[in-house]
Write a sequence for this structure.
């Protein structure tokens, strides 16, 4: 397989897996050797074993970080600060993409960014949805409520007024408070109830400030 042939197969994909190239009458070892050569020459980015992206100027679509996060570790969803920034619930730009997984925690540094995965119990592995990221790309992302709850749960003293103030939460009208309370029950932890009370109070303060 030459590089032009590769482009005809994957040019419209933000990411591709090597298995896609092994269908039909091909020599798997030869394909793997070629992928390594293209990676070493800077034509491809390797994100993990078997997962690649075309490098500029060959790619047509820039992979969204959330798509990359989902594909590096399939059983995961984007959450915490990454999802909160996506929903404009915090003002900061988050330099790495944070996800949750029912599997083992892990950390990946790739040519397309840094990706961190926190472990969460399978009973709490919910509260996410498939989100349209534009340009035909989609990824599994926590709901606004679950993103905040995941962060509170994982952060020591995440329910404290000081920590919640440090987050500089904004646009809290985007949160469904009934849903926040319902999802907090999934964690079966007193700190989550305390956090909901704090966030409810912050949302009320925000509404009152906007009325001034």
């Amino acid at each position: 397989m030459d590089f032009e042939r590769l482009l005809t197969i994957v040019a419209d994909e933000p990411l591709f897996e090597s298995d896609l190239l092994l269908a039909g009458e091909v020599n798997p070892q030869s394909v793997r050797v070629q992928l390594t050569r293209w990676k070493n020459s800077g034509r491809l980015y390797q994100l993990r074993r078997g997962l690649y992206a075309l490098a500029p100027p060959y790619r047509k679509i820039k992979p969204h970080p959330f798509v990359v996060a989902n594909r590096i570790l399939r059983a995961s969803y984007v959450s915490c600060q990454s999802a909160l920034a996506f929903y404009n619930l915090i003002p900061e730009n988050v330099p790495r993409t944070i996800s949750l997984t029912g599997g083992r925690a892990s950390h990946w540094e790739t040519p397309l960014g840094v990706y961190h995965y926190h472990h969460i119990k399978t009973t709490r592995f919910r509260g996410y949805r498939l989100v349209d990221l534009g340009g035909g790309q989609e990824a599994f992302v926590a709901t606004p409520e679950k993103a905040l709850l995941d962060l509170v749960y994982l952060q020591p003293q995440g329910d404290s007024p000081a920590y919640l103030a440090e987050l500089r939460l904004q646009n809290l009208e985007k949160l469904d408070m009934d849903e926040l309370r319902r999802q907090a029950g999934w964690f079966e932890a007193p700190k989550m109830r305390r956090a909901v009370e704090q966030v409810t109070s912050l949302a009320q303060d925000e509404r009152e400030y906007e009325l001034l």
About this structure: The longest helix spans residues 190-211.
